[in-house]
Structure formats: C-alpha cells, structure tokens
Design a protein that fits this description.
Elements (H helix, E strand, L loop, with lengths): L1 H18 L1 E8 L2 E7 L3 H14 L3 E9 L2 E7 L3 H11 L4 H5 L9 H5 L2 H8 L3
Antiparallel strand pairs: 1-2, 1-3, 3-4
Helix pairs in contact: 2-3
Length: 125
C-alpha cells in the first residue's frame, strides 16, 4: 500500500512540474531537436546559431513558466552560451510562445516529452 501511495505522489509531482514546462529542446552532436512544446521559429534559429557558433555537442534547454513570465533552464551548457540564449529568449513575448507552431508530425518520444526516445525515433535523413 505504501509503495502505491509513494508512486502516486511521485507521478503527481512529475505531472505538476511538467505542466510548468513550456518547451524542451535537446542538443546532440550539434543538432537541435524539439522534445516538447511550441518554440518560436526565430528563437529556434537563434538556438541553432548558438549551437553552431559555440560548437555545443550536447545539452538541453527548457522554458519554464514562472510567476512573472518565463525563464530558461539549462543542462550541460556552459555559462557563456547560456547567457546568449537568455538574451535571445528575452526578445520573444509570451504571446510568441503561445502562438508558436506545434511540432510537425511528432514522434512518440516528442508526445511523451522523453528526449532519448524522441532522438531514437527522429532519425533524420
């Protein structure tokens, strides 16, 4: 019974936190993949430019809803490129995030928001 309660609690926390994530991008081998959410096309181009210019091999970027707007969270990205991405992100109002195009033909990994599965199923030609 305790395991069931703990599992339900963990799922509830995961669901709550995932509701605050506006989008998630994954970087592998210098490529950028939208894992979850809607990303303004111009910001996605800015991300591609930073990944290319900084020669980033891997990492992730998430936009998270906060009390007064949205902010970016990073994993595996050095501070310099992080600041460039924050500066670029500030150029896009919240309306641009809400009205950005959805992922075209999302894979199961993208529908679930799981990066490794999204990459495995994307197999770009």
């Amino acid at each position: 019974m305790t395991i069931l309660v703990l599992s339900a609690l963990a799922l509830g926390v995961f669901w709550f936190l995932s509701q605050r994530t506006l989008f998630k991008l994954s970087i592998r081998g210098g490529e950028v993949l939208i894992v979850k959410g809607r990303v303004p096309v111009r910001f996605l181009q800015d991300v591609h430019d930073v990944v290319r210019d900084e020669k980033l091999a891997s990492g992730s970027i998430s936009a998270v809803a906060r009390e007064h707007g949205a902010g970016l969270s990073f994993w595996g990205i050095p501070e310099g490129p992080q600041q460039r991405l924050r500066n670029a992100f500030r150029m896009y109002p919240a309306a641009d995030l809400r009205h950005a195009p959805p992922i075209d033909k999302p894979t199961l990994g993208q529908m679930l928001g799981i990066a490794w599965l999204a990459w495995a199923m994307s197999r770009r030609a």
